[in-house]
Amino acid sequence: MQFRAISRCFALAAILALGGCALMPDGSHDPSFTELREIRKSDFPKYLSGITYAGDNLYYAVADRDGKMHPLLIRFGKDTHLPAKPRFRESVTLEGARDLEAIAWDPLKKTVWAADEADASIREFDPATGRRLGNIDLPGVFRKCRPNLAFESLAISPDGLYLWTANEEALSCDGATANSDGGSLVRLCRFRRATANDPWKLDGMWAYETDPTDGHAYKGLLASGVSGLMVAPDGALFALEREFSQTLLPAFRARIYRLDVSNAAKVSETPFCEKKPEHTVNKELVFGKATGIAMYEGCCFGPKIEGGRLVVLCSDGDDRVAHAFLYLSAP
Questions:
Q1: Distance CA 218, CA 287 (A)
Q2: Residue 237, number of CB atoms within 10 A of its CB
Q3: Distance of alpha carbon 296 from alpha carbon 317, whole angstroms
Q4: What single DSSP character describes residue 8?
């Protein structure tokens, strides 16, 4: 999702005051993910909206303009032992891509899969040349995606056999978008394949409810949706929810949830407006932060680090003032 007017409207001093605020609801337990550092640099590539880890120090990020993929390296400081500023390599144009919002590394085929919000598609690409290699046949119900609220999240399990995605906010046939009175019902999808040479087949679809917004619309803009997914080495699934609303000041917020589909019933393509799901996906908050104008859209697990595993979030800095990476430690 693009909020290109936002950064031009904020007062910088006020945003700096908001940028590091912790965000935990009343009565919640302490988050199990901890913040390591945040790096904001105006020379990072623009419009980064998704990121994936490809092993060693290599990552791939995508931009929601021009179909660009950006290879990058994240190394660790010798003195601080903290992840350093990302080092970007030459970008790669992905064939036919326009509005890339998510990317996932395929550990079996050594390719990347990317979600394009322009046509609500998920396609496979050669990361070296950008050549398009294939696509996923998606359930027909996703033709009901609202404009700019399609697939912003994509993740492949470390064994390469499961792929997860979700629409950002409710399909037009499934209900309303999020507001201060309630969240939005989206469809969390799991695809499966038996081997690397097999096509992805839908393996399950569940209803997932995003958070209500903390505040109200600002200049007509309001959002609370799924902007990223990631799968831990043990197969646990996590979702990044990105919110924008105005309370005292307009601001973005990032929350990460651990998801559990075991008690949620699978849903069909029947619109939720006709048959509302009885049990939605269970989610447990593990991290939350008010991020000012930094709209964190992409997330992925990285390598093992002391005390856990690195988690990397990237921000879509539309107007150069919010280009950022947020590093977390997961247990």
A1: 25
A2: 21
A3: 9
A4: H
Q: Evaluate whether 71 touches 127 at the Cβ level (below 8 Å).
A: yes
Beta bridge partners of 215: none
Q: What are phi and psi of 317, to 5 degrees?
A: -90, 90
CA distances from 124 to 1, 77, 117, 142 (A): 21, 34, 15, 19
Give, in order, the Cα–Cα distances in Å from 161 to each of 8, 78, 265, 331: 43, 36, 22, 24
Question: CA-CA distance, 122 to 138, in Å (whole number)?
Answer: 8
Instruction: Report how far residue 323's alpha carbon sits from residue 296's, in angstroms, rounded to the nearest whole number.
Output: 9
Paired tokens of 145: 């995606």
What does the chain come to in residues?
331
Per-residue pLDDT of the chain (331 residues; tens, 9 = 90+): 656 545 444 444 344 444 455 444 433 445 599 999 999 988 899 899 999 999 999 999 999 999 999 999 999 988 778 999 999 999 999 999 999 999 999 999 999 999 999 999 999 999 999 999 999 999 999 999 999 999 999 999 999 999 999 999 999 999 999 999 999 999 999 999 999 999 999 999 999 999 999 999 999 999 999 999 999 999 999 999 999 999 999 999 999 999 999 999 999 999 999 999 999 999 999 999 999 999 999 999 999 999 899 999 999 876 566 789 999 999 9
Q: Which two tokens stand for residue 218?
A: 């600002």
Q: Give the DSSP per-residue string, 248-296.
A: SSEEEEEEEEEEE-TTSPB--SS-TTTS--SSPPEEEEEEEEEEET--E
Residues 6+ apart with CB under 8 A from 218: 6, 9, 244, 245, 246, 250
Q: Decide the pairing of beta strands 223-231 and 237-246.
A: antiparallel
Q: How many CB atoms lie within 10 A of CB 11?
A: 9
